[in-house]
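Sequence in, structure out. Go.
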Amino acid sequence: MPPKRKKKPQENMIDKARSILGPQASKAKKGALPPRAHFSIWYFLIAFLLITYSQQYFFAGKVETIPYSQFKQYMAEGTLGELTIGPENIKGTLKGKGEKPGQDQEFTTVRVNDPDLVKDLDEHKVIYSGHYESKYLGRIISWIIYIGVFLLIWRYIMKRMGPGTGIMSFSKSKAKIFAESETNVTFADAAGIDEAKEELKEVVEFLSTPEKFQRLGGRIPKGVLLVGPPGTGKTLLAKAVAGEAKVPFFSISGSEFVEMFVGVGAARVRDLFSQAATHAPCIIFIDELDALGKARGMNVMGGHDEREQTLNQLLVEMDGFETNKGVIIMAATNRPEILDPALLRPGRFDRHVLVDRPDINGREAILKIHSKNVLLAPEVDLHKLAGRTPGFVGADLANLVNEAALLAARKNEEEVAPEDFDEAIDRVVAGLQKKNRVINLKEKEIVACHESGHAIVAESVEHADPVHKVSIIPRGIASLGHTQQQPTEDRYLMTRSELMDRLAVLLGGRVAEELVFEEISTGAQNDLQRATEIARSMVTEYGMSDRLGLVSYERTPQPMFFPENFAQGKTYSEEKAAQIDGEITRFIGEAHQRVRKILSEHRKVLDDLAHLLSQKETVQGEELRKMMSESTPGTTTSSPG
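Output:
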């Protein structure tokens, strides 16, 4: 047997990735379509030139060009055949001068000013005739040929671009139509949004059994608006409704209606609803509705707005649409505050369904779906992983699972281990690890001291999340280190004490630099910005300042329906603004003094942890808690009341 070829490292990595990602990845290559043959326009041009050449040199007879003196000589010899005398040249034949014996040869010569030409021809009894040539006939013919070639090329290009690109197709809807069997998405593919699924299951019943609701005089909702942050699964839910109801699904983005040509968007809206009526029952899904349905009257430049005309047509179509036809309009947006009020009134988008960020149980269910085809190690705990990813949406969790699988394949592992997920979380949250960045020893000590301050304060105050990991490995754009905290549960409310503890944790890095180096650096820039935002919100929004009382000094952002709302300034006096600034400074100052006291009491732990970080670059939370318990067991500084 011939020796086996040794695989390259890249091939081994691909094989590992396929084995980890499961059978789906291994089928990708087998089920792939053969490469599509591309027909270039150059083939057409080459064929055109070959045809022209063949006509000139194979199908047309060979014509010899002779000087006028030789023409006169042939005339004297009596070898001239019939002639055609034109204004500029003379054409005719030469008797017996062809390639074959007895064959005549065609010739042409330039006519010169010879007043005795006709007399000589008559003397030698040559048969001749005149011919009038138009100056413009040749040009017209050449232009017709060029225009014909151009039209053929244009038709070829339009055909290659596919249907819907012709001049008369601008008004056609660009919606993608998915048939009943093409959606392939059901409610089982959507997890972590149970409340939204329950709301939409009723929509499926509307499409499947409309008579159930109409027999009591009920009216099927015309539209359903899905509202939520990006990546929460709004489009997935809309496809799941179509898949469960087994009806066609029209999918289009709000930006695809508006074009540079006036009236095109309105025509596309009419065409979309006309197509939907012929495919009823069906679902029309408009993604990114805010691109189309922004509140009217916001064009400060005045004049006609094509987008507003398109929106007006959409409103008219939704008003004139009959619900008994079985067509339900669904839309998704993450900016509901800027939508036109006419879209949101009953009779148009009757139902508003919130697709919110999932809680810990929802994140665990989402992780189970996305890891279904991934080879996980037995020690991977998806519930614990869901607890480490607060605020993640479905798209983030799908990316997390994929990143972990790719990291495992890169290390030639057989399974995705917990450390792969740990690294994937760091990569998603903090950014890509910069292994090649060279940091001098002094800066490394400052970063280690800074992160140690954050970690020690987080473990010392009562209401802060426990520390999961402390690292001084540079990541992302400007991060030289980070302290990762793991929430014990999902929180929806924050108390004054918890906010004060957050202020303390944010100031821990700056205060640690002050204590150890008696000098400060620019590393606390982001910490100070976040601390200032928290303190300002406590004073101006939450009414947590005893001196200013229970007053909110920040107006809630309202939809800007009219141009007058563009210039909204502060709604309080300059004296009150000075008091607000004083309270913000007082909150941060009190937190600063509190943090300085905490780190002074744990100075030995601060030095030891900074030294350990400089050596290991990463310290786990359990190791930090062990160091603190050995140094000052049971020490906890509660937040001020």
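Check: The chain has four domains: 61-130, 176-354, 360-429, 441-631. Residues 281 and 386 are 39 Å apart (CA to CA).
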